[in-house]
Write a structure and sequence with these properties.
This protein has one domain. 68% of the residues lie in helices and 0% in strands. The longest helix has 27 residues.
Length: 239
């Protein structure tokens, strides 16, 4: 099919008009939601693979702060170092396993999200959309995510032992030492930390961190804008 010069000029004029037409609130809202959708899917994919948490120093889950005393007194626990290593690996495996279910939860939250101050978020910090999403959805996401984390912590892993069972073995051995004469002399305190809240919060913190990284890339790198709405909205930042 051959186009006349007039037809080609009309197409080019339309393209130029589209490029310079002011963004609407609806377009900015749609673009930000699309950025968060892409970011949340990518974040979940990055974290849900084996060692997605464990080999990433930014998000690796260590023993809960209340249990750091176990590491300091590890020599008092038979096989303690090996137990700690196994617990930490399993904490991260539980998070990696649970995060596989995160994408639909994020997608639902993003769909329900309304953005009244869309232009302010677009022109805001590199993680402005992520922080808005976090502020509006953290409680809901935690409520939805918690059962998945609990199920993951109870899931049989290496040697047919769940994360909770491995944790209970470590803390019970430590608590025996803490309750002994030597433990009391050393002023050791028992550890009774519940893992559900701790791992859930760590997993959610990691997700939001990765979503923020994805958002920053979309804002800064045109090649990361994989759809027309992302190119249209975030191209505004390049002007």
């Amino acid at each position: 099919m051959l186009w006349s010069c007039a037809e080609m000029q009309a197409v080019m004029d339309q393209y130029n008009l589209e490029q310079y037409r002011p963004l609407t609130d609806g377009e900015v809202s749609t673009g930000l939601k699309e950025a968060l959708r892409v970011g949340s899917v990518n974040a979940a994919n990055i974290l849900s693979v084996e060692d997605g948490f464990y080999k990433d120093e930014l998000v690796k889950i260590l023993l809960p702060p209340e249990a750091q005393k176990i590491s300091k007194n590890i020599s008092m626990i038979p096989g303690g170092k090996d137990l700690i290593d196994k617990v930490e690996i399993r904490l991260n495996r539980a998070a990696e396993d649970a995060v596989k279910e995160a994408a639909p939860i994020f997608a639902s939250a993003i769909t329900e999200m309304t953005i009244a101050d869309a232009f302010g978020i677009l022109k805001g910090n590199d993680d402005a959309a992520t922080q808005y999403l976090k502020g509006k959805t953290s409680d809901k996401l935690k409520d939805l995510f918690m059962p998945k984390v609990k199920a993951s912590l109870d899931k049989k892993l290496v040697a047919n032992i769940s994360t909770n069972e491995s944790w209970n073995l470590l803390t019970s051995n430590y608590n025996k030492v803490a309750g002994s004469f030597a433990g009391k002399l050393a002023n050791l305190q028992a550890v009774n930390t519940k893992l559900d809240d701790y791992v859930t919060q760590k997993a959610l913190d990691a997700l939001f961190l990765k979503v923020a990284e994805e958002e920053k890339q979309i804002r800064k790198d045109p090649l990361k804008r994989i759809s027309n709405i992302l190119k249209r909205v975030f191209g505004e930042l390049d002007k």
